[in-house]
Amino acid sequence: MTGDSATKTARETEGIDARLLLTGEDRAKMIARIHSLVYWVGMLIPEHEMLGDSEIDLREIVYNLTSKEKLTPEDIAQVNQLIHHLKAKERELEKKLAHDPMTLNSAKELLEETCGLLRAIDELRSVETPEKAEFRKRDLLSRVEDAKRWQKFVESIMPAR
What we know:
Layout: H1 3-13, H2 24-34, E1 49-51, E2 54-56, H3 58-67, H4 73-99, H5 104-125, H6 130-157
Antiparallel strand pairs: 1-2
């Protein structure tokens, strides 16, 4: 955290009832929530998000990319670029949550946004690419072949009736 942002944040919390400020215990719980396996429960992908200098309609973009039947190479590049930007934004927000003085309400808003970004990243990672489809196809065929081999083995050791 830069000296400027520390001074700015300290000014924002100046004059606020100390009971409204984020405690170390609350901060630890929020950070733990971000790192839990079920961080996304009840969290929505943010409708709009500022990435760099521009605001994007994140929820719509994620929906459009994840609902496409077949992605073009440009779509895949967009998914990867968006994941990269969202990860950077998520790390920035988590760092603020972990270190900056703030009110409990501000921290809850930051937590919600952070978890929403993580959910968007997770959704984007799940999009179907030709490589993933081919891998799943090979995996499924391999399991079918294994089942057939087991069936033949069982039939070979079972006594004939």
